[in-house]
Specification:
single chain, 1398 residues, mainly alpha, Superkiller protein 3, TPR repeat, TPR_rpt
Amino acid sequence: MSALKKSLVAAKQAVEQKDFKTGRDNCTQALAIDPNSYNALILLGYCQNELRDRGAAIEAYRKAVDLNPRAAMAYQGLLTVYEADRKVSEYIDTTLILADIYRELDDINRCTSLMNKTQSFVAEKGSKKDKIKMLKAILPGTPVYEYLEGRLPHPASTLQKLTEMLETEERQTIEGSVSKQRNKLGVNINTMTRKIKREVYEASELEKYYDLLLNWSDDDQTRRQVEGKLLTFLYNKLLVLQPKDRQQTKLQLYKMATEMVVLHSPIELAWSITLDWNDCRDLSELDENLLREYINNFPDTGLSKVIQAFLKSDISPFHRATEAETDGDDGESDVESVTVMEEHWSDEELLEKFTEGYEMNPNSPLANRILGMYYLHIGEYENAVELSISGLKVLQKVVKDFSRNLKKCRDAISVTLGTAYIYYQAPRHFDEALHIFDEILSDMPDHSQALIGKALIFEEQCQVTEARDILQSILDKDPKNVVALSEISWCKILLGQHEEGRAGLEKCLSLLTRDDPSSENMKAKIWWRIGKSMWDERSDLRSDRSRSYNAFVTSLKFNPNYAPSYTSLGVFFADIAGETERAGKCFHKAFELDATEAEAAKRLTETFANERDWELVEVIASRFAEAEKKRSVPGKEASWPYRVLGVAYLQSQDLVKAIQSFQTALRSDSSDTHSWTGLGEAYAASGRYIAASKSFVRASTVDPDNWYAQFLLGMVHRQIQDFDEAKTLFNSVLSERPSEFVVLSHLCEALVASAQHNVARHYYGDAVSDAVEALEVALTISKTRTDSFNMWKNAGDAIAIFFQVKAMADKFPTETVTSLILSAHPEFNAEMQRIDEIDGVSLKNIGKLDNIDILQTVTFYHCLAYKMGLLETYQTMKSRAVGWFNIACAELRIFQKMGMDEHYESAAIECFKNAIKLEPKNAQFWNAYGITTARQYPLISQHAFIRSLIIDNKQVVAWANLGTMYLIKGDYELANLAFTRAQSADPDYMISWLGQGLIAKAVGEEAEANDLFEHSFTICSGADVSKLAHLLYAASAFAQMTKSSTRALTPINVELAVFTLEKVLLLDPEYVPAAQYKALVLERKGDYSRAIATLTDACSRLEQLYEDSESPEELREFTNAKAQLARLYLAHKDFSESLEASLFVVDLSEGDDNLRLSRLSAEITAGLAYYYSNQSDEALKMFGMAGSDSNDDLDISVMLAQVLYSLGGENREKASDLLFKNIEQDSQHLKSITLLGTIGLVDGSEDIVDAIEAELTDFDIDQQLNSVSDRSIEILMSALEGSKSKDHKPTVRPWLQSAILKPSDPKIWNHIDRKTALETAMLEKSVKARELSDEFVAAGSFANSIKAIFISPGNEKAWGNLASLTEEFSKRPPPAVKGGNALEEDIIKGVGEMKVGA
């Protein structure tokens, strides 16, 4: 036996014994002998499989297959390995090869068994792709199916499973791909989805397998389902295909859909495609049976509902034929048709069905077309436009998605759109409609609807002749076209051919035999046109009710909702019959039916405006404007409704809308002067005065004769306080219309406002001039009208200017005011008579004014003017309460400003009560009542203020007044709370800050009080409220001057204080506190002559007041002022006058402890005056009296010691003893110490020098730090120490000690090192410019002099030093070095360093 056979036998035996490793080895040996041994490869593959080495097994079997491809054994082995390894796809491929081998061997049983086993294995272990592969392998047309036909499953079943699997697979593929791509940035989801679907559908085999299934299936139901799936597949595929690739699929889809419809398929998609893609010119071309079958098969779809309503509506071209059939004699009409005709739907039901169907399927071209036509038919033109536009968009989408061009359908919808544009918002869309009609007529020149539409547009555009020619061309071809005949007849009427036109309209009535709504509307329109023709033809016959009136009424019989007929009837009733109420009802009905009825809207707004019912005016104008806006071309709307609307909004204070309305009106008509005026009024009311003035100027430019615009422009200038321009404009109007009451009234008001404004700005002369002119204007008004409340109020306000500015009361126009008052003819009033009895101000007392002071005359007329204002208008309830309030304010003003005469106060209280009775919820009245009662009845005053705040808790004035009352009563905590609330309400209200300043002053917080007084002065305005603020500011400024004499006495501080007090004195020349403070400030300034003049007048006033009243308060004020005047005379070195005044005070105050301080001041002044008059004994006597009155005050003792020392002799010892006595009482009394030390130095007394040096050495360091800025301690110590040295020069040690305590004081360093002093001055912020300039001067050098002048140009020392240095340099010989002389170099150096110094 050969070695090969031995190895194969051994291998076979080993396999039988299941020793697969040995078998594998034997097979390997055999293959080593013969690599092409088929059996060895088969056995090797088997052994490797059993040893679970699948790869080696497959490799062995594949080599065997390569050796013998048509042998079955190797394939069977492969199947075994693939089955064990679950490689289903390879298993299927191997099965098909093996089945083909069995087919060749004609072994049908083994082939069948193999296929059955493979199907089971795939069903159990295979994936979806494997199952699809298996199903494809047993389809008809494959070798397996041809051999085993009848032994395999039926092709229909196989195809059913296959298509379902493919559907699922494709759906999952699309969803998976879309999901992966969705989250990528920059990806358009729709485009990406279409691309993915296109790729899937183009590669899909579903279409092929659907066709096979249709061919093999015997079940009709299955075939219907498969047809639907195939149709849907083609429909979806067509949606995503590129336009260039759609043609075949599109034709296939439409052909299949129509064939399915012919076969009565239950697939709704086939029917909708057939109906929607049917490109017919007219709906009558549709197959009625097809439509009815569709609605029977699919009654619940959107398109079906639309078609149902269509077949039952008036626009259907089919139902009348059906009606004729049902009326036939044979009686064999279709039952279904009879049912249709017997069932009747109302218009509401039709519209509901149309709407419901359209909402269900808005993307149906047919549904959009039908519903658009129906809306056009019933006159819903807006909806017709919307549906037509929507339909055209749907058609565009059909073209885009399916490349199906439905041109005839598009033309039909376009005609509907163009026709709707004629009536919807006409004439806004005429251009669009003409474009549509021209486009249609370019293809179909005889299209009657397009021609009629074009004619209607020409008719509306007043191109009547062109419209008539077009309509005539239609009638030439169709003489019974009612629409064309009606419109051509109307054209003739518009051209003045009334009889011929009416004849044509009557012929139209004979042709309209139907009773449908469309025909009824047409008849109503024709009858209105007949009536309008009669109305326009003969104006003299308009009152004949058998003509126009009868035609209008007949029109409404056919259509009760025809708006033009109501408008025409309203005009008839208003202009002819004179029945205003019926006319208003007709206009209202017309406007209610059609908001674009311009005549009705205009008449209604005029009626409501005359009745001042602005709310209804706004409603009518806004509705008409909105409707007009919709129907007009943008920018070409009628301007009058917007102007009316602006006026209505202006009346209701809706200023934003008013401005917008006037602007809209002006965009339509920029020459509308009334709109410009209204716009200016709206701007002015909203506070936009610049824009308002521009509007009024434009109105005047457009219409130079428009005096009202000039008048309003003057009012705007008055509002922005440009009173001069306002007065000029008012006078300009009055030059043309001198008796125009409203202009005179506002001129008077502007003059008063100007006067008050000038008082607030302290322009008192201008204020008085304005007040005089205002009174003259008021007199002019009174010549025509004395019942003007505002005129009397303005007169009273103008008179008030004269006792506000008392210094100019002599300019009061007494004759003018007397004439004004006497022009009034008031009726008797008991309440006013009671007030007259209290205050004595009445017409009968005018004769007593000749012998009284001018200010009393002013106050008399001031109050009387307000009384005349109330009495002349007493019948007007609106002004009665304000009238009492004005009188009360005048009484209170007189009481406060002209002396505390309680009669005026009582009268004010009574008047406020009368005002509050009439208007109990007026917060201003309660606030004023609280002010009036504060002095006598504080509890009532508090109640009044609280009541005012309950009504309006944001009143800053009431809070401030309540705080003032609490302040007067000493309740600082409540006062502070009230003032804080006032500041929260208005931070710029001066009184609240002033009140808090007074509180701070009362509790001892001087610094805070001064800050608050300064802030109050900064924000104050107006004469009434600023007098106290000015005075307190001046007082605080003076207090600061007394605390830091050198630094506070700057020109700005002093002059500002003086200026402030002078303004107060101009307001009230007799205001003594202002005069006293002015004298004090001038005294500090050194202007003694002005101070003496000011205080002399004040003393005269105080002396007069004391003589009149002899009150202790007046005496105290008088003695204080007189003592101050004595001191001023002393400073002015007028010793005799000083002695006279001071001795007068001493005598007057003798024995009165309340006047001790005044007497003490006078005694000191007299002592000094005696001393400077060389009357030493009298001086000593006066100082002695001062010492007694001051309880031996140490400062007065120092003054006495100075006088004693100056007398010489023994008096000097007395002076020293007096000073030692002072030091014993107070060892820290600096004046006594320094004076005694100075005496010791002058007298050379070492004992005194040693004693004072010891005292100063032990001097309290705190007092030394707080000592005055004259550095008297350091000067004295330096001199005392220097007196003990050989050269008797002052020492530096005290200055060094002070430098340690105050290192930032340059004055100390001046005595130590001038360079350090200069550097310190430059670093110290508190050093003023003049002081720093002085330091540079003290430092010497030419450069420092230039810096000193640069810092303070007014420093005389700096200029003098510069002059001396220049003179010195000029005397030097020229320098030998090149580059200029030393003077030039020093100048250059100085200028170069000037920036550093600055």
